[in-house]
Write a structure and sequence with these properties.
5-stranded parallel sheet; 21 strands; alpha/beta; 20 helices
Length: 608
């Protein structure tokens, strides 16, 4: 394993170990570089290769009945539908929660349920179930709440619901504590007693699996018999066919990518097929958001362009950085109901104003994030002259809205490679978001300090919490102590994982096509980075409207390549024609007038 430190960026380059010859020999029909990439992803069997390169919707999804409590949930939901009881889907305000709310509520409506959706106000009501809201829903006649993307740590709220005679079913994917709340049922693959083979489903992924099971139970008597009900099932008599749930996959893919879930196993199937559904989506709101983001939507006829044209524009990047942020802006800057309505809207004359509203909110959100990042850095002492930076960074301010804190924490965490907690102070309560590095499980750290917190919950690398100001200094002191003990110096350096060192003779458009077989890329399946050493710069110039991109031509031996560094002009200030560099890059395809050529997208470099 080769380790190189980039003197320009102080990133540690880690070239992954070479694939053993016995594994190369196992796949003689595949490009050796593709075998290396599969090996890096721990895929070394023919079955594994087939599942990864050719994911199959019918074969590669697990039986939803393996999820904990799901059989009981199906029986109870059918009972509530039969008795015409009022059901409320209670969803989180991020993209995962909003898409999950749409998927589950639409399924219940198709099954004849009397159902509505409640998404809390991030600022006024905070994350998760809320005692005041529960009392209000009870007064409105709600009989059953089904949570999506939340609820697994809402002990007090569920206890209140039990006392007033209202039932709660929890569907969630967040970290579970040692004990679970006493809900009617809890579907969470992360439960310690869960036998579900894949633990990394998102909130919308679980909502989809539940919807899939409900639809199959209502349309397939053999599947329904697996529920093993002691009494006859109250299955609704509705015309609903199996396979209809596939049309939810655009939303499932969107929520999965935006929640930064690993794009492996079932999530890979969801995203792969979800991108195909997105090409043909009938959701006017998604069409309009793609139009506003410039994703090849024919605005005049209000239709998506030809599938083959749109396909090249749709990717996990499209979901995570173009569509997702516009939907998320609703919950961060206003109310997530706007995003929910946009995904449900059926009228052409209503969709454009609402989509434009979200677009404006997203622009405002970007400006606000940049402003607060500067303020937070100043409070944290993150200046160029700073000689020592703590292992964990914590700050708060009355003027930092909680809807933005997570984004600010994430940006600072990425830049300084250490856990970051950013809080908004409102009265005597601090509401915060945390983003962490892979080696520091932030939610487990918070669990050790639960006596100081009002509420908390999350994942290994992202969490939210509320704390009284009088407990803040003690909390800060103790979590800093935990971080200092747990985090090693090497954990604080950004590691650039390089899939393979390549020579110029192996770089061609065929290699790009092989690498593209690994799509969709994302968490758990990153876009491959390659290393080529000792290349000579033969030409370079600034490009782009703001001249902030760098276009280069490089040469090794007799081969010439185009390379581009997006937003890298400042980082590349030391480069000159004639200099030799080691270059880390991704592969991109340069298409012009029907011709396809290989181009290298710069990631990092070292001057030799």
């Amino acid at each position: 394993m080769n380790l190189i430190v980039s003197t320009k960026t102080q990133k540690t380059w880690k070239v992954l170990p070479k694939v053993p010859k016995k594994i190369l020999d196992r796949f003689p029909e595949l490009n050796p570089t593709l075998v290396q990439l599969l090996y890096n992803r721990k895929i070394t069997t023919q079955k594994g290769v087939d599942h990864f390169l050719l994911p199959d919707f019918g074969q590669d999804l697990y039986d939803p009945l393996l999820l904990p409590d799901i059989k009981k949930v199906i029986r109870e939901i059918f009972k509530f539908i039969k008795e015409k009881k009022k059901i409320v889907v209670f969803g989180d305000y991020d993209v995962d929660g909003v898409t999950a709310s749409v998927v589950l509520s639409e399924t219940l409506k198709r099954l004849g349920a009397k159902v509505s959706v409640y998404i809390p106000d991030r600022i006024k009501e905070g994350y998760g179930l809320n005692e005041k809201v529960i009392k209000g829903l009870e007064k409105n006649g709600t009989d059953l709440i089904i949570t999506v993307d939340l609820g697994v740590t809402d002990f007090k709220e569920i206890e209140l619901a039990n006392k007033i005679g209202m039932k709660i079913i929890v569907t969630d994917h967040h970290h579970c504590r040692k004990k679970l709340p006493k809900a009617l049922a809890i579907i969470n693959p992360k439960r310690k007693d869960s036998k579900y083979p894949f633990k990394e489903l998102t909130g919308v992924g679980i909502a989809f699996k539940l919807s899939q099971a409900l639809i199959r139970a209502a349309s397939d008597s053999k599947f329904a018999s697996k529920l093993k009900a002691k009494k006859p099932l109250n299955i609704p008599k509705v015309d609903i066919s199996q396979g209809r749930e596939k049309w939810f996959l655009d939303l499932v893919a969107l929520g999965t990518v935006c929640d930064c879930a690993p794009i492996i196993s079932e999530n890979r199937v969801f995203v792969k097929y979800g991108l195909k559904v997105l090409e043909k989506t009938q959701r006017l709101g998604l069409r309009e958001l793609m139009n506003l983001a410039g994703i090849r939507v024919e605005d005049k006829v209000r239709k998506i362009s030809k599938a083959d044209e749109l396909r090249s524009s749709l990717s996990t990047y499209t979901l995570g950085f173009q569509i997702g942020p516009r939907l998320n802006a609703a919950g961060r800057m206003d109310h997530a109901n706007s995003a929910y309505y946009l995904l449900n809207i059926k009228r052409e004359d209503k969709v454009r104003p609402l989509a434009r509203k979200l677009n404006i909110l997203n622009v405002n959100r970007q400006d606000l994030v940049n402003k607060i990042i500067g303020e937070a850095k100043a409070k944290l002492g993150l200046t160029k002259k700073a000689k020592r930076i703590p292992k964990i960074l914590i700050a708060y301010d009355e003027n930092w809205p909680s809807g933005i804190c997570g984004l600010v924490a994430g940006k600072i965490m990425e830049e300084y490679s250490r856990p970051v907690l950013i809080f908004e102070k409102r009265g005597n309560i601090l509401t915060g978001s945390a983003r962490s590095i892979p080696t520091f499980h932030i939610t487990k750290a918070l669990e050790k300090l639960s006596n100081l917190l009002l509420e908390f919950g999350g994942h290994s690398q992202a969490a939210g919490m509320d704390i009284r100001q009088k407990n803040f200094e003690e909390f800060k002191k103790k979590i800093t102590k935990i971080a200092n003990k747990k985090i090693k110096p090497q954990d604080l350096k950004e590691v650039l994982k390089i899939e393979k060192e390549v020579e110029e003779k192996s770089l061609n458009i065929e290699l790009f096509d092989d690498v593209a077989r690994l799509e969709p890329f994302g968490e758990g399946n990153p876009e491959p980075k390659f290393l080529i050493k000792n290349v000579e710069i033969v030409n370079l110039r600034r490009v782009g409207r703001a001249e902030n991109h760098l276009k280069m031509e490089i040469k090794k031996n007799s081969r010439y390549f185009k390379a581009i560094g997006f937003n890298m002009v400042e980082k590349c200030a030391s480069l000159r024609i004639g200099k030799r560099i080691d270059l880390v890059f991704n592969l991109i395809c340069d298409e012009w007038n029907g011709a396809r050529g290989l181009e290298l997208r710069m990631v990092d470099f070292v001057v030799r």
